[in-house]
Amino acid sequence: MSEVAFGEAPYGVLRPPAPEEFRTALAGWFRAHRDELSGVRAARGAARAEAHEVLLDFQRRLYDTGWTRWGWSPGVGGLGGSAIHRGILYDEVWAAGLAITEGVFAFETMAEMLVRFDPELAARFLPAAMRGDDFWCQGFSEPEAGSDLAALRTRATPDDEHWALSGQKVWTSNADVANRCFVLARSNAGVAPHRGLSMFLVDLAAPGVTVRPLLAMTGEPEFAEVFLDNVRVSRDRLIGQPGQGWTQTMYLLQWERSMYGWQRQAWLHSRLGDLLGEAGAADRPAELGAAFVAVSALRARCRDSLRALSRGESPGPEISVDKILLASAEQLVMDVAREVLGDRLHFDDDRAAVKWRRDFMYSRAASIYGGSAEIQRSIIAERCLGLPREPARAG
Ligand SMILES: Cc1cc2nc3c(=O)[nH]c(=O)nc-3n(C[C@H](O)[C@H](O)[C@H](O)COP(=O)(O)OP(=O)(O)OC[C@H]3O[C@@H](n4cnc5c(N)ncnc54)[C@H](O)[C@@H]3O)c2cc1C
User: Fold this and answer.
1) Catalytic one among 112, 256, 287, 318?
2) What is the spatial distance between Cα 271 and Cα 94, in angstroms, rounded to a whole number?
3) Contacts for 20 with CB less than 8 Å, ≥ 6 apart
4) Which residue in 70, 178, 188, 370 could disulfide with 135, CB within 3.0 to 4.6 Å?
């Protein structure tokens, strides 16, 4: 398959390639454009700010040549196919030594939810996000509502033409570079907490929005506080119906845990490859073997979940297994990296060492973001194994 075939209009009439055909064609395209993509390879090891524009350009190129449009329906700017095509794309990007913008993580978490609950908004907003012209972030957590998300306090009040949003979000990943945020807010205080929530697509440039970046221990402003002070959001930016926010969140979490886990395993496989090339790796065969097994288990599990979601099935609470495997694999790989690299990871200032240090630090968050490991284990115990609820949570 040539570059022309993937970029040719009208896109809607193209036949989705079989998964292995797609994988071979994409790997071939990366090989054929190897020299032009050297900047993207270099961005893998660069600091966040330095890599940002390079990776957005790459995102645009992947869209303009059609590659990232496979896996989405023509109605939302895609070329057809399923999530399997997208999964293959992420696999091949990292296998080719390339990298992908972090915006894709939030995009993959939110996009399927938008398609399912609000096809009109999906048709309007997916193409720009797919191309990297829009950058999305997720405004769920608040200072008093993380694990207990239904306790959130951000209010959404309707008037004739708008919703007025007021409150505070925290730990909003990439809010400093994003232009749109999916905000979960309380639109009805008179019903059970999780029934009174609605989701909105908010422009971060709107009057009343303040984004205050937070420095993570990686040394990068990975996330931010987002303050909403009477932000007027037009009625057509409500996703689906008022009160659907909790159902939408539960639906998108399945995508977050499976597709994010899949993207992460592709990245972890490539980082394991990097580690094998480091001096000292040969002294740690058992540890490296264990890390490879953990990443392979994550891959196998996320592949099954993605296939189920692509068939329209719902993995339900068992998707928490994917999140546990992701956190364990990511932390194990980075623990082994620290053993292999020793003081080099802690103290050296060359690009590779700084990158290992940042990745090690970020891996500590893997058992917190997207739902903490303790909460996932409780979900598995109670909802998959049928054990009684913990006393602290039963009330
Ligand atoms: C790197 C990173 C990126 C993030 N990105 C985003 C983002 O983009 N958007 C967003 O909305 N949020 C984001 N978050 C926030 C994340 O979702 C929350 O941190 C997470 O859900 C935990 O909530 P919390 O921090 O309020 O901790 P808490 O809920 O206060 O929990 C504190 C500790 O208590 C434990 N705990 C709490 N309740 C129970 C219980 N019932 N049983 C057993 N243990 C319990 C938890 O496991 C945890 O160890 C991010 C977090 C991190 C670290």
Assistant:
1) 256
2) 9
3) none
4) 178
